[in-house]
Specification:
Elements: H1 3-6, E1 15-19, H2 23-29, H3 34-55, E2 59-66, H4 74-98, E3 101-105, H5 113-125, E4 133-140, H6 142-158, H7 169-173, E5 186-189, E6 208-211, H8 221-232, H9 242-245
Parallel strand pairs: 1-2, 1-5, 2-4, 3-4, 5-6
């Protein structure tokens, strides 16, 4: 029996976030350039999206390119941006067929014009789709997102639009990039690293963390299902006792 057949469809996480790590190392092991790993990683993205659609997961957020990644060699960055453009062009028909809505979070204004325009066009084309919300975290930094939210809220207080005493978690979350999305219940990281890497720091406060030694280009649908099955075996207490939640 495969992992898919063991999953309890009544206890699926509404939102899964993934740190797609290991493309460069995968390519290096094969004596290839790093960009070869990024290209191969697209196959893993396709597999995971197919798995999420199959299970009718509501939200899938992929750490695609961090703000810190701009510091990588210029040629690698340019190749990644071109890969994003080409992948969106290639997958847009599938998004429409599978009812997937494309979304993006991060400092998108830092993206090259071609990448930004392609991304924006795809989001507009899929905006009425009602299935999986596929979010790409691009030029993304969670710390920067949090500071941005603080500045937005401070500006509203200064303008007299908001009473400082009324600020609560709901108001704070309404000023994050992920406004309107449920917080991730499962965070997956590939490549054997045990770090969060400045990713959705506020949002994953109560997420279950799943780490696998598989490098991202080797991660496939069955690996995705295995992570979900592992999630379902855990007891989620949210600060309470086992007796209270059972």
């Amino acid at each position: 029996m495969g992992y898919r057949d063991q999953i309890d469809l009544s206890r699926l996480p509404k939102h899964i976030a993934i740190i797609m790590d290991g493309n460069g190392r995968w390519a290096k092991e094969k004596g290839k350039l790093r960009i070869f790993g990024h290209h191969s990683g697209v196959l893993s993205v396709r597999a995971v999206v197919e798995g999420a659609v199959d299970l009718k997961i509501g939200y899938l957020t992929l750490y695609t390119f961090s703000l810190e990644n701009w510091n990588r060699p210029k040629l690698e960055v340019m190749a990644i941006m071109e890969l994003i453009v080409n992948t969106i062009h290639r997958e847009i028909a599938t998004f429409m067929e599978k009812n997937v809505r494309l979304n993006a979070i991060g400092d998108l204004d830092l993206l090259p014009d071609k990448c930004f325009n392609t991304l924006t066009d795809a989001m507009n084309k899929t905006s009425k789709n009602t299935g999986l919300v596929l979010t790409l975290a691009l030029s993304y930094s969670s710390r920067r997102e949090i500071l941005r939210a603080v500045r937005n809220i401070a500006g509203k207080v200064k303008a007299g639009e908001l009473d400082a005493a009324a600020i609560n978690e709901e108001i704070f979350e309404d000023n994050l990039f992920t406004k309107g999305m449920p917080n991730p219940e499962l965070l997956i990281r590939t490549s054997g690293e045990y770090r969060i890497s400045n990713y959705l720091l506020w949002q994953i406060a109560y997420a279950e963390l799943y780490f696998t030694s598989k490098l991202w280009p080797d991660f496939r649908k069955e690996d995705f299902f295995e992570a979900i099955l592992d999630y379902q075996k855990r007891e989620r207490r949210f600060g309470m006792t086992s007796e209270q939640v059972n």
